[in-house]
Each structure stands twice: as structure tokens, then as C-alpha cells.
Amino acid sequence: LAKTTQPISMDSYEGQEVNITCSHNNIATNDYITWYQQFPSQGPRFIIQGYKTKVTNEVASLFIPADRKSSTLSLPRVSLSDTAVYYCLVGDPQGGKLIFGQGTELSVKP
Amino acid sequence: SAVISQKPSRDICQRGTSLTIQCQVDSQVTMMFWYRQQPGQSLTLIATANQGSEATYESGFVIDKFPISRPNLTFSTLTVSNMSPEDSSIYLCSVEEPRGSPFTFGSGTRLTVV
């Protein structure tokens, strides 16, 4: 499974757009990029998944360049409740297990 | 997506004892996954549990320490045996149903060993 690298922590303020970038230089052809969010005392929760270009849902956008060696999770207009750890994972959806990297601890301040 | 009920939600245990964690899913799933999250750390996969066969353990985890049962397609247990303070962690179960879809996680069991 491709290893991922993302910032350990980020700070933001309410109402700002937050972009978290993940590097995955060894991504394989069958690999998808998936982001999970984890609040304290809860299990991770799926946010978004993509293979290439751009994916958008009601929560976030995911930007993936043509070479797919990195990806950027974009959270529009964050609120205090977006304070959480965000994990970038890369793997084949048919691969049968998830391997987590270190995650990015996002702190949103008033 | 599947709904997972995990219990207990937390426990404080004496060293040398064992704790069994239960994970119940509201639908039949082929594989269930057990993770450990040590304080301030990311999640580490312990093992994959398939119904009707022995669990597959990741490097660094052994069956004697973390025996797993998978009696049917909706239920699994993880036992943390002969506990020491180093086993203090959050333990989570997870499922992928249907195959290829995003994973769903239980709310976790916060274990403190004293």
C-alpha cells in the first residue's frame, strides 16, 4: 500500500477555507485516495474518495493532479466543529484493509 | 452503510487480567477489522477477521495476546489478554460493506490498564 505524508497539524479560523495536502509518490494504478475524519472519542468517518481530477460532495472537495502523486482535501468555510484529525489513505478499494498514516490535526479557532 | 455497536465503550482493568470487546454489525459482512489507537497516535491494524476461519494478524500482533472470534457474519470479539499498562489504548472494529465501499468504524473501546 502506498505510503502517505501529510502535515502533522494545521491551524485555521472559522469561516476560512482549509486545504490539507497529502503526498503519495508511490501510488499504484488501482489505488484510490480516500480521506477520513476523526473526532475525539469517536471512530474515523469517511469524508471523500477520488481517483483523479476533482471530486466534490456536500462536505469537501478533493483535488488530484494528473500525476496523482499528491492530493488536496479542501474544506470550505470551516467551523469550530471541523476541529478533528484528518487522515489521507491510498489503496485499492478492493484491497480489503485500511492502513492509516499519521493524520493531520486541524484546529479551528474562533 | 453498516451500523456498528461496540462494547464496552470504556473500561479500567487490572494488569494481568483479560478484557473481551464485542462488535455487532446490523448487516452481514464478510470481513471485520480490529484496530488499536494508542494515546495521541494514529490507528494500527491488529487483524482481519473472516467468518469461519482464523483471523489474519498484522506484523507485531499475535493470536495469544489478541485472540479473535468470528462466530457469524454479524459479530466478532477481540480479547486483550494478560494486560499491561502498555495495552492502554482505544480499540476499534471496522467493516467494509459492500466490498470496495468506504469503511465504517465503531465508536471504540477506551481501555485503561492499571
Question: Can you count the helices of chain A?
Answer: 0
Oligomer: heterodimer
Q: Give the strand order, joined by hyphens, for the main sheet of chain A.
A: 1-9-8-3-4
Largest sheet of chain A: 5 strands, mixed
Q: Which stretches of chain B are low in confidence, meaning pLDDT under 50 for 5 or more residues running?
A: none
Q: What can be said about the biggest beta sheet of chain B?
A: 7 strands, mixed
Kindly report the average pLDDT value of chain A: 93
Strand elements of chain A, count: 9
H-E string of chain A? EEEEEEEEE
N-C termini distance of chain A? 38 Å
Euclidean distance between termini CA atoms of chain B: 37 Å
How much strand of chain A? over 45%
Helix amount of chain A, in percent? under 10%
Our estimate of the beta-strand percent of chain B is: over 45%
Which class of secondary structure composition applies to the elements of chain A? mainly beta
Pair of chains with the largest interface and how many residues each contributes: A-B, 20 and 23 residues
Whole-angstrom Rg of chain B: 13 Å
Continuous helix count of chain B: 0
Can you put this structure into words, describing what you see?
The complex is a heterodimer of chains A (110) and B (114). By secondary structure, chain A is mostly beta strands. Chain A has no helices and 9 strands. Chain A has a 5-stranded mixed β-sheet with strand order 1-9-8-3-4, with no helix packed on it. Chain A has a 4-stranded antiparallel β-sheet with strand order 2-7-6-5, with no helix packed on it. In chain A, strand 6 and strand 7 (70-75) form a beta hairpin. Chain A is globular, with a radius of gyration of 13 Å. The termini of chain A are far apart. By secondary structure, chain B is mostly beta strands. Chain B contains no helices and 11 strands. In chain B, strands 2, 4, 5, 6, 9, 10 and 11 form a 7-stranded mixed β-sheet that branches. Chain B has a 4-stranded antiparallel β-sheet with strand order 1-3-8-7, with no helix packed on it. The N and C termini of chain B lie far apart (37 Å).
